[in-house]
DNA sequence: ATACGTGCAAAGTATTTGCCGTTAT
DNA sequence: ATAACGGCAAATACTTTGCACGTAT
């Protein structure tokens, strides 16, 4: 239903493709988390970790594969699938479903925020707000549950009038491309 | 990840299989909506509409197919897929994703409610609350959007202590078998 | 050394679709 | 009459996996 705009090569600053282990991709925050979780750091994994660390949007596997391949062409989709799965299990990544059939990923450390999907453009806008968690925790409690995680997504139309240019009160926002 | 418990035959009160057009499946609320939307009422469609009207849980296509087949065996999965898709486009059904790979459906008129998924049992508990909409509408507005729809799902563990037996304040709840 | 990682192609799932005979309106 | 519909099997789309080889620790 809602499909996000594809933003190929957005994060790919590297011009030529470099061999794995190259300085550009060393020691990304996510690579560090991999090591901490006892994962072996192969060339492919380092590149994927780097791509994930650089991403500030919500790429799907195909997109991650594209970005990773641009850095080191000897990476297969299968490896990307295996890696995101692994990182999700380790709690390093979070899988999202914004509709459109494919899973999309973002780093777990990307802070507590929610997503607002512009139904017209498919764009994903992130925002922060503490109220929802509070409210939902309370609701879960009333139902006799201990909230372990939750999902909140808003779908809306951009209001043409009052287009907000400056940061909104209580909300830091950041949109995909 | 979270997979709902399969509840086959739960809604299947009919003992033997009846031919399409049988009285049991005539004039279900959803069948009526189909007519209002200018859809042709074939035997299969009537049965599927009936099954959907009776369901008070969130069946996936396979489950719908099972229930519908029990009433009239000459229905194929393809038809179920085509029907739910059509009904979703008409706004009669809503598609849900509770994890586990398959889409699940519920009638749009089933009232405003949310879902809490018991991560241990996979059970889905419905609850009502006005707060979330208010809060989210407000948030969307701050971001310069007009909220057209939203998604809220809670995932939690049942609190063993204080197991609530009676209806909870401000919440009508109803769980998938 | 050896358990873990990877590429490749084949296998799975869930869902859609082409073809063509059937049916509601 | 005729546009929709439905069955079937083949086709898609996304994701997982078996196998044989490579590599980080």
Automatic annotation (TrEMBL), chains A, B:
UniProt remark on cofactor binding: Binds 1 Mn(2+) or Fe(2+) ion per subunit.
Organism lineage string: Bacteria, Pseudomonadati, Pseudomonadota, Alphaproteobacteria, Acetobacterales
Organism: Gluconobacter japonicus
GO molecular function, one term: transcription cis-regulatory region binding
Example GO biological process: regulation of secondary metabolite biosynthetic process
Protein name in UniProt: Transcriptional repressor
Cofactor requirement: Mn(2+); Fe(2+)
Keywords recorded for this protein, A-Z: DNA-binding, Iron, Metal-binding, Repressor, Transcription, Transcription regulation, Zinc
Superkingdom of this protein's organism: Bacteria
Ranges of Basic and acidic residues composition bias in the record: 1-12
Listed CDD domains: Fur_like
InterPro entries linked to this entry: FUR, Fur_C, WH-like_DNA-bd_sf, WH_DNA-bd_sf
Alphabetical list of PANTHER family matching this protein: FERRIC UPTAKE REGULATION PROTEIN (PTHR33202:SF7), ZINC UPTAKE REGULATION PROTEIN (PTHR33202)
């Amino acid at each position: 239903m809602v499909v996000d705009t594809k933003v190929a090569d957005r994060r790919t600053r590297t011009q030529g493709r470099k061999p794995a282990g190259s300085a550009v991709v060393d020691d990304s925050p996510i690579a560090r988390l991999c090591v901490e979780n006892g994962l072996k750091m192969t060339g492919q994994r380092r590149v994927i970790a780097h791509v994930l660390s650089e991403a500030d949007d919500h790429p799907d596997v195909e997109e991650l594969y594209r970005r990773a391949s641009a850095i080191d062409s000897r990476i297969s989709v299968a490896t990307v699938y295996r890696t995101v799965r692994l990182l999700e299990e380790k709690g390093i990544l979070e899988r999202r479903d914004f509709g459109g059939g494919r899973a999309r990923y973002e780093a777990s450390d990307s802070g507590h925020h929610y997503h607002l999907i512009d139904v017209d453009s498919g764009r994903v806008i992130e925002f922060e707000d503490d109220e929802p968690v509070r409210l939902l925790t309370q609701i879960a409690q009333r139902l006799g549950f201990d909230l372990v995680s939750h999902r909140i997504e808003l779908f809306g139309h951009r209001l043409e009038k009052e287009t907000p240019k400056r940061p909104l009160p209580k909300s830091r926002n950041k949109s995909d491309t």
